[in-house]
Structure prediction request, 431 residues.
Amino acid sequence: MSENFVEKLKWRGLIHDITPETEHYLSLNKARGYIGFDPTSDSLHIGNLIQVLLLRHFQLSGHTPIVLIGGATGMIGDPSGKEEERKLLDPQTLQYNCDSIQKQLTKFLDFDSSTKNSGILLNNYIWTKDYSLIDFSRDIGKHITVNYMLAKESVKNRISSSQSKGMSFTEFTYQLLQGFDFYHLYKQHKCSLQMGGSDQWGNITTGIELIRRKLSQKAHGITCPLVTKDDGTKFGKTESGNVWLDRNKTSPFRFYQYWINITDRDAETLIKQFTFLKKKEIQALVSDHHKAPHERILQRTLADKLTLSVHSLEDLTFAKTATKILFGRSTIDDIKSLNHQNCNDIFQGIPKAIIPKEKLTSGLSIIDALTEGNIFLHSKGQAKRALDQNAISVNKQKVSENYRITLKDLIAGAYILLQKGKKNYFLLEID
Prediction:
């Protein structure tokens, strides 16, 4: 008998919707369940990650996870939660995206075929590519009415929205294609459960209905809450402002900073959803956090564990060092250890001025440096007052009015970090 998967999800706040009898069914059977990921980008993001972790919980509970890469459905794009139709991608881009996503998934799920409940990785393009429109219309379309499809929230919201330009037939058929996937997996792989984000509930129930009508069999569905951005909108692979798992889209440092900066309320929720810590461990962390919220124990735990699992120990170490440089007490050794790429990452978004290298040959006065381009401080008087107040640092070291910046102050051969107080930074980049 499997560990009670649903009970575990309930405590972690990972269930938004669940079909009747699902908990009972999973408590008595070692099941196969799947989640689909459309390759509309070459990377997953943290909105997808919560669903990947859902599959990991499923596997740890003794069940078999199936990851479905949407090589076919990715050519259309799911309209759920969208005001506009997605841009269609060419086959080469889709294949590249599929390959990239598969590599990310192997970090979290066990696909070792020697284990009893080894993960299964499939691509729906395989069984969709040779299926003719006539066959699809006869075998699938005739079992789901237009009225049933129009009643789905993703369709109703799109059609009724004043911001929408309507819905194409291509997008309208998406729920049928996803339902066809569930039907195929049920028949060919004995997959009786589909999971996903809460925006997938309509698509999941279409598949359950198709299985009922064509096979007279019962299938099950579970959705988890969506992870939302600061503005309340969901993370999506075609949206801006996402936190990606790919280091080239969201660097390990920025990834780490995202978790460090979440609110206390969100941290109490996400520590359950994004980690595999036991209930007692999480309760102890929450208790400690309430006693000293300024220490951000929950945020640091999340940041540590997720940066380590998504990236590496080396990346986590660097992210902590970088955080100490910008927001804590760091040493000149921390600063000098940075390379050019590190600097681009850490100092991204900090106001800067570009100065020629010749200015440092004979030494640049600290007052001239602080007022370079009138970007940081706007007058020499303002700079002098800040220096008199001992508020100015060069590369995290306090300096006085007579300090001159020279080539020996360069970080990674190209940067100098100026600071006023604790949080105001200015970067000199050497040309």
